[in-house]
Design goal:
The protein is of the alpha/beta class. The protein is built from 7 helices and 8 strands; from the N terminus they run H-E-H-E-H-E-H-H-E-H-E-E-E-E-H. 39% of the residues lie in helices and 16% in strands.
């Protein structure tokens, strides 16, 4: 179980929201962005079709900035590590979901189902807040089964990228980099799929999502 997060002090939240967020905004504004493959994603949103955006934990560096002001519901870790992105994302118009305690999983699941059934959009980190790295947890697939939502893979790469020595091989880049943000092809999950067939799909998506990260390098 993930331990509940301690409430941040008003001062810490002020620093994250009013100092950290403008600095992150300025950082990314200096970069040259190229967005690839967004046509199907934009069509789904115009049609108010529910969407689950999925990426690996190591590729979330740009997420708070890139998807800002769209009213998306991200599932953010309730641990202390999630405090900074959660505070920034709230200020950028996200419907941040952070559960804690023994009922967190059920509460989060119900909130995401309601959001998707209303034609909304959620963000799920495919390997979770603690990994293992690039091992797909089945939550996004089961959520798609339950709601009929389209899963849309997403990733990014950068010209001067740096991989942090962490469990998730976290990818960062300095200001003034060239950045490619890439959407994958949307897909749905058969609500009747289960057992071995479901596990084969999970493995297939895991392999394809890992290979998808390398694709972003081609657009720099």
């Amino acid at each position: 179980m993930i331990p509940p997060v301690a409430a941040a002090s008003p001062f810490r939240r002020f620093i994250y929201a009013y100092v950290g967020r403008p600095l992150i905004w300025l950082w990314f504004k200096t970069c040259c962005w190229k967005v690839v493959g967004e046509e199907d994603y934009l069509r789904l949103r115009r049609e108010r079709k529910p969407v689950i955006l999925v990426m690996w934990h190591g590729r979330i560096f740009t997420v708070p900035y890139f998807f800002r002001k769209r009213g998306i519901m991200p599932l953010v870790s309730p641990s202390r590590d999630g405090e900074i992105p959660a505070t920034m994302m709230e200020r950028w118009g996200y419907k941040v979901l952070r559960g804690s305690g023994s009922h967190a999983v059920v509460q989060e699941w119900k909130a995401m189902v309601r959001e998707l059934q209303a034609g909304g959009e959620v963000i799920i980190v495919a390997d979770g807040p603690r990994g293992p790295d690039r091992i797909l947890k089945d939550g996004c697939l089961r959520l798609a089964q339950a709601t009929g939502a389209h899963i849309v893979p997403w990733t990014f790469s950068a010209s001067r990228k740096k991989t942090v020595k962490s469990w998730d091989k976290f990818l960062m880049f300095p200001p003034f980099s060239r950045v490619a943000a890439v959407y994958g092809s949307p897909f749905t999950v058969d609500p009747k799929l289960k057992g071995e067939a479901f596990e084969l799909l999970r493995q297939k998506v895991e392999i394809e999502l890992t290979a998808f990260d390398s694709l972003a390098d081609l657009y720099l």
